Structures are given as structure tokens and as C-alpha cells.
Amino acid sequence: MISPTPNMIAEKHGPVGKLIFNKPAKHNATSTDMWEAIPVILDDFEKDPAVRVVVVTGAGDKAFVSGADISEFEKARSTPEQVAYYDKIGEIANARLTKCSKPTIARIRGYCIGGGLAVSLTCDIRIASDKSKFGVPAARLGLGYRAAGLKNLMDLVGPAYAKEIFFTARHFSPEEALGMGLLNRVVPDAELDAYVDNYCKLIGENAPLTMHAAKRTVEELARLDGKPDFGRLTGLVKECFASEDYIEGRTAFMEKRKPQFKGR
Asked: Which CDD domains does the protein's record reference (predicted)?
């Protein structure tokens, strides 16, 4: 597919859809056009049954996403109306990443800072190079963070680490981030691509309806209001048991072969 802006790249490789922040000269700092492009790209990935997993990453080897493009502020965030619009499209983009019906992996190399860290938190799995750096510099800029963003972080690392990340505003190593629970895996930089590719292969071979049901169940159980929609979750489980994939999974097990799931 073609992305609406050259600053975001959309690629498909078999069962993998790749969403790439493409501004390497500025460490993939985000701008208005990039936020606007994310829902468009995800809509296409979600409509394509061949795409089983979405990888979110940054171009080049210096950064995943380093935060907002400060150079854009003068022309795009200088009035209250512009600030409100920028905040709105950023929220929409992050919400679409969070709500993506397919498994998402953040492939992280280099700087993962501020808004970039927030993007990584919208993904289901975070796999990082051992040369990555993490942090939220809000306290050095006088910025306030919304409750939803802080909750995403706190759900992963807990209240104490969330406070440390915000209070110190320092950069954390991948090993520290892994110890906090911020990351799923840290791998040697030279092995990052092969490791992510292998995870995509593992996920791509599994039953889409089962993964979707699990993802939505975790989402409901983590709701801010503490009121999961158990009726919805029961329906998702029933959908799995009523699917052709469930028949295929049982048959393949009995025949001692690899199942071929179709997502229906």
C-alpha cells in the first residue's frame, strides 16, 4: 500500500505489516502528517486477511521514535486551536495502535523517548536492541501527561518505576527497562531483525481469532473503570469454538501436522 506521507512507510511482507516512522535525520521525531497517516495504514492492514501481525518501528539505526518534532511547533502548534488539533490526532493515532485487532510488535533500536515510548506502549510486545535508550523527559520541559498515558506505563512497570521514570527524566538502559517490565525481550543489536522476524513467523502461524480474543480480554480486564464487558469476552470465546480454524487446529493435531489457519 501507499502511505499518505513519505514520513510514514507502510509495507507488507507475507503475514507481516510494517508501519515505519520515517524521519531518520530527525531520529524519527513525530509530526502532524505522521499521526494522520497511522489510522489510514492500520485500516488497510486490518482489512487484509493475509496480514497476521503488525510491526511498528523506526527507519535507520539511531532511533525508534525520539518524541515530537520540535521544529514543527512554530507553524503547527503555535495557537490553542493548533495545539488542540495536534493533541487530538496524536490521541487518535495512539488509540488506533492500542485497539488494533491484530498482534503488534514494537521493534526498538536506538532512542525510544517521550512520545516514542508512548507509541511503544500501545504495542502488545516490545523487543529491543541492546543499544536502545528509554526515557520520558517531560519534567525537563514542564509538560503534563494525561492519566491514560501514565496508566499505560504504570500497568507495565508499576507505580514506583513509573514515578522514577517521570521524576528523574533520565535515560534508562535496555537492561533497566527489561527489569522494570517495560520490555518483553532485549537482544544483541545484530540479532534484532532475525529475532523479530522469528516472532512474526511464530505469531503468523497461529489462529487469528484466538489471538484476537486474548488481546481483547486483556484489554477489558485492564479497563480504567474496572468494569470489563464479560458478555463481549464470552462472545469472542464462542466465536473461536465455532470457527473453521478450531476444526483445523484439532484436525492438524490429530494428523500430527502444522495447522493452516485462515482467521475464520
From this structure: crotonase-like
